[in-house]
Amino acid sequence: MSDADVPARHARIVDFARQAGRVTVEGLAETLGVTPQTIRKDLTLLERRGALSRVHGGAVPSSGTDNLAYAERRAIAVAAKSAIGAAAAALVPDGASLFINIGTTTEAIARHLVDRAKLMVITNNLNVVDILADRLGIEVIAAGGRVRASDRAVIGGIAMDFLRGFKVDVALIGASGIEESGDFLDYDVDEVRVSQTIIRNARQVILAIDASKLDRPAPVRIGNLDDIDWLVMDRVPDALRAACGEAGVRIVETVMPVTQG
Fold this sequence. Notes:
- The chain is α/β, with parallel strands linked by helices.
- It has two domains: 70 residues, Arc Repressor Mutant, subunit A, CATH 1.10.10; 177 residues, 3-Layer(aba) Sandwich (Rossmann fold).
- Helices cover 38% and strands 23% of the residues.
- It is built from ten helices and 15 strands.
- The strands form four sheets. Strands 6-5-4-9-12-14-15 form a seven-stranded parallel sheet, with helices on both faces.
- α5 crosses α6 and α8 runs parallel beside α9.
- It starts with 5 loop residues before the first helix and ends in an 8-residue tail after the last strand.
- The relative contact order is 0.12.
């Protein structure tokens, strides 16, 4: 297995632990097709990063106050995020002004906007700046403020003050978790405050999120269904669908191949 596969494997291990409450070395080795020695090394690294806590024979989730490393998040649900990105981008009309926040799913949306015309994009996501800055039909405005090294998000009070200077047509936002009640969540208070500022200063809000985020134990609440107009997701559970209906939130559900890993 190449080094490029390691972030994806680590992401799957953490997700397995969060879903099951506990993982074993033997079970992970069999599921992921690697040796127990490889899994032990993985668990040690993940414990050092605070993603898991080692126990005899395996590991359990950490407290839930830390997110996965950004490279590992990029490796999760890649095909689903691309489909979600295409569907969310299709909701954006040419000539619109946009906010785009930090996240691997919002990066996927940006990749599907590259050939669009007459867009103004204001973002606190420097990865989105890299994707869109050289496109002739798109004006890109980067928020000022403190840059978080782990994912190149611009966060903090300066960024919030900057974003309040705009009133845009559409906000394209992602989140680290969503509950079936419709609450959507993240791990970092400063990041959440920026996302809330984005929501308050947009005429329409599109939440783009993949089903791996369902019931993830992120501790900080960004908002709920009353704060959004569209939910773009690859698999919408019945309870969340019903909550969207009650809140008047429109759903775009993307279709993914059954063979996706």
